[in-house]
Amino acid sequence: NAGVTQTPKFRILKIGQSMTLQCTQDMNHNYMYWYRQDPGMGLKLIYYSVGAGITDKGEVPNGYNVSRSTTEDFPLRLELAAPSQTSVYFCASSYSPGQGAHDEQFFGPGTRLTVL
Amino acid sequence: KQEVTQIPAALSVPEGENLVLNCSFTDSAIYNLQWFRQDPGKGLTSLLLIQSSQREQTSGRLNASLDKSSGRSTLYIAASQPGDSATYLCAVRLLTGANNLFFGTGTRLTVIP
Question: Is the CB of residue B76 less than 8 Å from the CB of residue B19?
Answer without folding.
Answer: yes
